[in-house]
Design goal:
Layout: E1 8-20, E2 25-36, E3 40-43, E4 54-61, E5 65-76, E6 81-85, H1 90-103, H2 138-155, H3 160-174, H4 192-204, E7 211-214, H5 221-230, E8 239-243, H6 249-257, E9 258-259, E10 271-272, H7 274-277, E11 282-286, H8 293-305, E12 307-308, E13 317-318, E14 322-327, H9 331-336, H10 342-348, E15 352-354, H11 364-379, E16 385-386, H12 388-396, H13 402-416, E17 421-422, H14 424-427, H15 442-460, H16 465-472, H17 476-486
Helix pairs in contact: 11-13, 15-16, 16-17
Length: about 500
């Protein structure tokens, strides 16, 4: 097996600091590195007592100054001790690499595996390590590749519980899944489309202009509205959501604008409407496309002067409310059908945020599924992960119900799973199989197109073979061959 770091022979003085268990304090001894790598070195020094496996190392790198690090003795031999470096920071490692690179012997041998490199290849054809040591990015790429190989070696001894812990740590602490870019913890993702949404939220949040959020059901329209409110100057005032499709038409006006006592039968006292309750804050009108036409006129008047008129009131009241609306319908089609006012649409559409469906968010579907798996597993005090087949199922499913469907499927799978790994069957996802009947092979499709294009070219060029060949970008013999093939 090849080494994970370049090792070179050196003659570098080093002071060794040993903590004596006998109570004599720290003893400092003088010795020399005989070989050196980024991860450790071999020192011409007799092994100290077994209890002193951690030693201090002080050495002076020519042109780079003095360094003081910790080392662990990993092997003792007659010639000396092999040590692994502990607290080598990035700056020290880069300087150490400069020193090692200058001391690599130019003997046509790979310093990783020892194979002769007579042709001076930039990459060893035995071990695969890059040998382009003088490249500016060499050390960065080497560190990445070395990390992957070290992790692969160590992971062989991991238990399944260790793997779950590591994956959860990577997801939550390193990739910040669930904490992406300081947006609501359930508003996660890294696709270009969702990152663009995050950017628009930040831009519009500090303003007071109305926002229209569009997107399919389950894409997170209310989460978007909440994120805007929480990042606005109104964050300490009420956020009032109301679903225009969930309230009967004859009650919706009273819910939105309120009424005065005695304004109609049953109005035994004044009622504060949602707009008045949201004074100073934000009101979120979900499914705005379901708002009755008569209320659209009243909403438009309110947006123009911010004067709230209760049902039965003789006058109005000035309120300061920011409006965010959302819809999963095409309002322009509704305008064409006379079901939505054009002037109201343009008033609402001052700033539009279009939420992408999950099927257009690429790898986000896996990120979302893993995030909710971690969340529900913690809530139920369980340890769960997806099988590789389940991940492929999540990746290949269109998720017509979007984020809401992911939440429901994953929560159910956590409850129903029989073991630590959730399978495709437990996700209860049915991906339609391709009906093969009537499906043509690629060869058949290619022949059909080829024949059709030849016929079109022959007709266009009045059967002039030279012109046909130029139009199709092929030779005259090829044209004759195609004519024979398709009997044209």
């Amino acid at each position: 097996m090849s080494r994970l770091d370049v090792r070179c022979e050196v003659d570098l003085p080093v002071n060794i600091l040993i903590d004596n268990s006998s109570g004599k304090g720290i003893t400092e001894k003088r010795s020399r590195f005989t070989s050196l790598s980024l991860s450790g070195g071999f020192i011409d020094f007799p092994a100290p007592p077994a209890e002193s496996r951690i030693i201090g190392l002080k050495y002076d790198l020519p042109r780079h100054g003095e360094f003081e690090i910790l080392g662990q003795i990993v092997r003792a031999e007659e010639q000396g001790i092999a040590t692994r470096f502990y607290n080598l920071n990035r700056d020290a490692k880069i300087k150490l690499w400069d020193y090692i690179r200058d001391n690599i012997r130019d003997d046509l041998s790979c310093p990783y595996c020892g194979k002769r490199n007579k042709q001076k290849l930039r990459k060893c054809d035995r071990c695969g390590w890059s040998l382009n040591f003088y490249s500016q990015d060499y050390i960065i790429e080497h560190e990445k590749e070395s990390f992957h190989k070290r992790l692969f070696q160590k992971s062989r001894d991991f238990s399944i519980e260790d793997i779950y812990k590591i994956l959860n740590y990577i997801d939550v602490e390193i990739l910040k899944i669930g904490k992406n870019l300081d947006i609501n913890e359930e508003f996660v993702g890294s696709s270009e489309s969702i990152l663009n949404v995050f950017s628009m939220i930040r831009k519009v949040a500090p303003t007071d202009i109305p926002v229209l959020i569009t997107g399919e059901s389950g894409t997170g329209k209310e989460l978007t509205a909440t994120a805007i409110h929480e990042r606005s100057p109104r964050r300490n005032k009420p956020f009032v959501p109301i679903n225009c499709a969930a309230i009967p038409e004859n009650l919706l006006e009273a819910e939105l604008f309120g009424y005065t006592k005695g304004s109609f039968t049953g109005a035994h006292s004044d009622k504060t409407g949602k707009f008045e309750y949201a004074d100073g804050g934000t009101i979120f009108l979900d499914e705005i496309g379901e708002l009755p036409v008569n209320l659209q006129s009243k909403l438009l008047r309110f947006l123009e002067d911010n004067i709230l008129e209760k049902i039965g009131a003789n006058g109005g009241k000035k309120v300061d409310v920011r409006l965010i609306a959302a819809t999963n319908t095409d309002l322009k089609s509704a305008i064409a059908k006379g079901m939505f006012r054009k002037d109201l649409f343009y008033r609402l559409d001052a700033f539009n945020i279009a939420l992408p469906p999950v099927r257009e968010r690429g790898e986000d579907r896996v990120i979302l599924a893993r995030y909710f798996l971690n969340k529900f597993s913690r809530e139920m005090n369980l340890s769960r992960s997806f099988t590789s087949e389940a991940i492929e199922t999540i990746r290949n499913y269109d998720w017509p119900g979007n984020v809401r469907e992911i939440i429901n499927k994953v929560r159910r799978a956590v409850v129903m799973s029989k073991g630590p790994e959730i399978t495709s069957a437990e996700l209860d996802i049915n991906i339609p199989s391709l009906e093969m009947e009537g499906v043509k092979s690629l060869k058949e499709v290619r022949c059909t197109i080829e024949k059709q294009k030849l016929i079109e070219a022959m007709k266009h060029c009045n059967s002039n073979i030279s012109k046909v060949a130029r139009v199709l970008g092929i030779s005259r013999p090829s044209v004759y061959s195609l004519r024979r093939k398709y009997n044209i």
